[in-house]
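quick one, 104 residues, struct below
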Amino acid sequence: MLTGILGFIVPPEKAFTSGAASYNIFHLVFGAIGLLLIFIKKENPIRLFNTGFGLIDLYQALASHLNLFPAQYFQWTRVDDILHIVVGVVLIAAGLYGTRTSGK
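---
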């Protein structure tokens, strides 16, 4: 959610990441979903969210490189791409690790 908020506050000429309004809204919505899952304290939905959002992050890096949907709306930068790869791998690992350690 912080990324979405900062995207609306930081002037585009000073931002390292995309400041596109649709991209900021995307971060706010998915951040709110993530927070909601933390508050309800259900392990399976949290693991699924981490794994799914990690895959979405990796897709965004690929979509940016190949100019796939929603590249024209999100207007990613190289910094976004690097962050998507790093965060995507970490989220997928967290989701899969949680599945492995819970025995489910």
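Residues 2-102 form one domain.
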